[in-house]
Write a structure and sequence with these properties.
The complex is a heterodimer of chains A (about 180) and B (about 550). Chain A has about 180 residues and is mainly alpha-helical. Chain A folds into two domains: about 30 residues; about 120 residues, no CATH class. Chain A contains eight helices and no strands. The relative contact order of chain A is 0.18. The N terminus and C terminus of chain A are likely disordered. Chain B has about 550 residues and is of the alpha/beta class. Chain B has one domain: FAD/NAD(P)-binding domain (3-Layer(bba) Sandwich), CATH 3.50.50.60. Chain B has ten helices and 18 strands. In chain B, strand 9 and strand 10 form a beta hairpin. The chains are: A mainly alpha (about 180), B alpha/beta (about 550). At the A-B interface, helix 5, helix 6, helix 7 and helix 8 of A face helix 7 and helix 8 of B. The complex binds flavin-adenine dinucleotide (FAD) and iron/sulfur cluster. The site of flavin-adenine dinucleotide (FAD) has 42 residues of chain B, from helix 1, strand 8, helix 6 and helix 10.
Chain lengths: ~180, ~550
């Protein structure tokens, strides 16, 4: 990849610089949630959702779903484009915790990682509509455009080896349009 | 409102061309478009919100609010869908229509594609027909579209296409890595690979620069304006004549008729939601196959109680699109070079001539797959989530090639658009209901096409493959929607004549993908454009002979 596009390396470095500034601006608006700082989720729901999302995309040498901002992505969209899925999340998350209590006697967030993996597999089987929804949203948040709050610093794109966009003449448009709407 | 000569409904592929042809011939034209006019500044390469991946909505219309459709799925019954949901079968709603954000493959259909019934006979239960026009009728208009819209590519590797008088106006883009991998493999298989014709500048053309080969082409607008649609070619020309007024965010409600049953104007809701009436001499409907049929069905009057042009219950029938099948091959070396648009190579060896199959289709490599489009396209047995899924994304993202193609559908009369009795849009109009399917033989062809794709990938060195040949439960019309206002000589079995004139209303035309009798084994846009030039030509000649003045 690097070798095939040496001709644009200078442009790319400039682009990275511009991107870093954009990233900082984004961080103020939408990351680093404090307690109760969500658009839709409450803290308890956020903890359970974190446990599920981080099984769908666990950490290895690249960040997990929640580390890459997937919770921010989902929470924001539940207040925007995915408003229609609010009930599914409310019900699905509370039933996940109910399953966790039934099997292990505590919240899902408090389980060990292997227990969480088992529970997510159970949710996939018993509540597949909810699981598929969370899976789609998690992968969107992880692999989709950073402007929506997930895929922080384009980490998944770097992970798959895409590198910085080899694009000339894009930055002006990104800056003009600003962060997500 | 002051009367004009012509109202064109829909500023897409066909409507833009009709507006240009009529206004340059001196007719006064109002071009109504329900969507907005986007510029390069609005292009926002957002991989979750565009016309291809729509999980966060369609970037270029329609909005999710107030624009539902109903799909009648035999398994679930009627489902009301948002424009961003798959089954909605959206194309686009903006100036340029689908051509603002399309992939821009710009094919000529083959001569056989216009004579499917004569060549193959109609499979039982199907409504397979010949067109009332031939490839030769359209040839000059294909050429005009290629030069006015601007097409790059090179057909010379393939001996299967009809005769042409001039080469394409632009050479193909330089081959990307997938092209280089697939071309020798195709030749080893005895196939005839060639450069896909594309409505994309490979060199400066029409006053605009060439493609800068970015990663986000299909589904997105082009920020350097190198992708050629009606919005950056014919529509600006139409406006420059001074004879054409483009009214955006204006939703046509119905075609108004006089007491003799001739069209007298169009009622529409303007950007503020106010009902307006634009009187005119002739009306051209170019709203894309689903919405064109809906507009005709919604135009009811004493003489046309079931919708204008629908005396014989033909409006909305024969809905088709394309049944896409193919394969993904996984390699042990990098296939991805980040050189857009990605799609580059095709074979047309399989469009016709396989014994036992009623047609076939082209096979091409796919546009660049963004990571979000890979999540469900990993090797067989990859878990759907967890570390193994994440690792597979990492291992295969840059090591896969997808080959697929549009199987030429065998149409059915009961694959159709009707008006849903219950669901209405934000203007209070009944919405389109989609039901039925293409003939099942289409799926048999699709399976063979997928196996052929797989064989090509294996020859190219794929170490494993996944074959994609589904069997959708309702017609897959979507971006390639066509057929709902069939062109024909028999008024009982079609909606318009060979000149796209509605059989029993001489000053009403449908000019867009709706008139396609069959939809070829290729993406349809260039044929839609050629028909728009062809029909505009006869319309203008008729006009000059004062044929329409009542
Ligand atoms: C992402 C994508 C990729 C594609 N790739 C390809 C490709 O590679 N090759 C190819 O050949 N084709 C491709 N297509 C399909 C191509 O864009 C369509 O075939 C073509 O645009 C159809 O032309 P049309 O004139 O029938 O309709 P359109 O171009 O859709 O134009 C119809 C217009 O009418 C407007 N309209 C509808 N109803 C009303 C109303 N009541 N009042 C006012 N306005 C109305 C719509 O808003 C729209 O702008 C693609 C489409 C998309 C979205
Ligand atoms: S690949 Fe080329 S034509 Fe397509 S959007 Fe990018 S620059 Fe424009």
């Amino acid at each position: 990849m690097q070798s095939s596009r040496d001709g644009v390396s200078l442009t790319r470095r400039q682009f990275v610089a511009a991107g870093a500034m954009g990233g900082a601006a984004l961080a103020v608006g939408c990351t680093g949630h404090n307690q109760g700082d969500w658009d839709f989720l409450n803290d308890e729901q956020a903890r359970t959702l974190t446990a599920i999302c981080d099984q769908i995309v666990p950490a290895d040498d690249f960040p997990s779903a929640s580390q890459a901002g997937v919770l921010t992505y989902i929470d924001r969209q539940l207040a925007r484009h995915y408003r229609r899925h609010r009930n599914a999340y409310r019900d699905g998350l509370s039933s996940a915790d109910a399953m966790s209590w039934q099997r292990h006697g505590r919240d899902m967030a408090a389980l060990s990682a292997p227990q969480q993996a088992q529970l997510v597999a159970a949710i996939e089987k018993e509540n597949s509509a909810f699981f598929n929804l969370v899976r789609s949203h998690t992968l969107e948040g992880y692999y989709g455009a950073p402007r929506h709050g997930g895929n922080r610093d384009a980490v998944s794109w770097r992970m798959v080896g895409m590198g910085e966009p080899p694009v000339r003449g894009r930055a002006q448009y990104d800056e003009r349009k600003g962060a997500a709407s | 409102m002051k009367k004009v000569n012509a109202v064109v409904v829909g500023a897409g592929a066909a409507g833009g061309i009709v507006a240009k042809e009529l206004s340059t011939a001196g007719l006064s034209v109002v071009l109504l478009e329900r969507g907005r006019w986007y510029t390069a500044n609005d292009c926002r390469k957002d991989d979750l919100r565009n016309q291809r991946t729509t999980v966060l909505g369609n970037a270029f219309g329609p909005d999710d609010e107030g624009n539902p459709r109903v799909v009648w799925d035999p398994q679930t019954g009627p489902r009301t869908l948002l424009p961003s949901e798959g089954g909605y079968q959206n194309n686009a709603a903006c100036v340029g229509g689908g051509t603002l954000s399309y992939g821009a493959m710009a094919w000529r259909y083959m001569p056989q594609d216009f004579r499917m019934r004569s060549i193959y006979g109609a499979p039982a239960g199907s409504s397979l027909e010949d067109w009332p026009i031939t490839y030769d009728d359209l040839e000059p208009w294909y050429e005009k579209a290629e030069y006015e819209i601007g097409i790059s590519g090179d057909y010379s590797g393939s001996p299967f296409f009809g005769p042409r008088k001039r080469p394409l106006p632009m050479p193909p883009l330089a081959p990307n890595r997938e092209f280089q991998i697939l071309e020798p493999a195709a030749k080893r298989l005895g196939l005839h690979p060639f450069h896909i014709p594309m409505a994309r500048n490979s060199v400066p053309y029409n006053g605009r620069g060439p493609c800068m080969r970015c990663r986000w082409c299909v589904g997105f607008a082009c920020e350097v304006d190198a992708k050629n649609g009606s919005q950056n070619t014919v529509i600006p020309t139409a406006l420059a004549t001074g004879n054409c007024e483009l009214r955006t965010e204006c939703m046509a409600k119905e075609i108004l008729t006089d007491d003799r049953g001739r069209a007298r104007g169009v009622a529409y809701f303007d950007a503020d939601g106010r009902l307006q009436e634009q009187p005119c001499d002739i009306v051209i409907v170019s709203a894309c196959a689903i919405e064109s049929a809906r507009l005709l069905l919604n135009s009811k009057s004493r003489l046309f109680p079931n919708g204008i042009g629908n005396r014989h219950d033909q409006v909305g029938r024969h809905l088709q699109g394309h049944h896409y099948t193919g394969a993904v091959g996984f390699f042990d070396f990098d296939t991805y070079d980040d050189v857009g648009p990605g799609a580059s190579i095709a074979v047309a060896d399989y469009n016709h001539g396989t014994p036992g199959l009623c047609g076939g289709g082209a096979l091409c490599n796919e546009f660049i797959r963004l990571p979000i489009q890979m999540i469900d396209r990993l090797p067989v047995n990859t878990p759907r989530w967890g570390l193994a899924h994440k690792k597979a994304m990492r291992s295969f993202y840059k090591r896969n090639i997808a080959v697929m193609g549009p199987t030429q559908p065998i149409p059915m009369a009961d694959a159709r658009i009707t008006l849903d009795p219950a669901v209405r849009d934000k203007w209070g109009m009944q919405v389109a209901r989609i039901s039925g399917n293409v003939h099942p033989h289409t799926f048999e062809i699709g399976i063979v096409q997928a196996q052929r794709s797989e064989a090509w990938l294996k020859e190219a060195g794929a170490v494993s493959t996944v074959v994609n040949a589904g069997r959708p439960t309702t017609v897959s019309a979507g971006q390639h929607q066509a057929g709902t206002c069939r062109m024909g000589n028999d008024p009982q079995g079609s909606v318009v004549n060979r000149n796209c004139q509605v059989h029993d209303v001489d000053n009403l035309f449908v000019i867009d993908g709706s008139v396609h009798v069959t939809n070829g084994g290729f993406n349809p846009a260039l044929t839609i454009m050629a028909i728009a030039y062809f029909a505009s030509d006869s319309l203008v000649r008729n006009w000059n002979a004062t044929g329409f003045r009542s």
